[in-house]
Design brief:
With 268 residues, this protein is α+β, with helices and mostly antiparallel strands. Among the domains are: 44 residues, no CATH class; 104 residues, Band 7 domain (Tetrahydropterin Synthase, Chain A), CATH 3.30.479. The protein is 53% helix and 22% strand. The protein has seven helices and eight strands, in the order αβββββββααααβαα. Strands 3-2-5 form a three-stranded antiparallel β-sheet, covered by helices on one side. The longest helix is centred in the C-terminal third of the chain and has 51 residues. The termini are far apart.
Amino acid sequence: MEIKPSSKVLTIGGALFAFSMAALVFSSLFYTVDAGEKAIVLKFGKVTDVVDSGLHFKVPMVENIIKMSTRVQKMDVHGEAASKDLQSVVTTLTVNVMVRPDKVAQIYQTLKTDYEISIVAPVLQEIFKSVTAQYNAEELITKRELVRTQIFDRAKQKLATYNLVLDNVSITNFAFSRGYSEAIEQKQIAEQNSKKAEYDYQRIEVEAKQTVARAQAEAQALSLQRNAVTDQLVQLRKIEVEKLAVEKWDGHLPTTTGGAMPFLNISK
């Protein structure tokens, strides 16, 4: 026997279907643009308008919406080049870039939405090669900030022609060939040892001068002492000793004497 769905079930199913169709129609009629975005309105593939954030209406089957971010986008660009002294140099450039909000339509028409790959990366790679070729490998390390500034200034000017705004460029550590890296390390070690040897020499020289100065001071003090001991000073010291002995004498002569003679009692 065939079991037919009840009218209640059919009613619920019909309501759900109608709701789904209404939601589908609504989604095809309206769209939202988030903050930090611009929406490009295409009518049969042609740019007709650019709208800001909010809820907007579109004509189904006629208009197509392309959203583009106007926020700063961060990307990494791999760079390879040769230095002035023909050393292979590898690095990564971290780039912050954004589209000009008032030029979104032009950017889409010329670059579409893949401007990071089609424009930003090639421009940065080319400028990195050009700037790196002006410095030898050692200068790339010691003048790294200058190199970064030159890359940033030139890339900013170049990307501006595409209506792109370069906010910042940073450089990770430069990587050289293994042989050159070892040579740099050995040079740094040699310079450190040279500075240490120079410091030790200066320290020993100072200590030797201090030792000589102390010896000269001691010798000068002894010389002064020797010069101060004169015959007059010796005679004066003898008089002082005799005077001190007289002051201590109690007025009595010694009662005994020693020596080769027998003891005599002088008092008797």
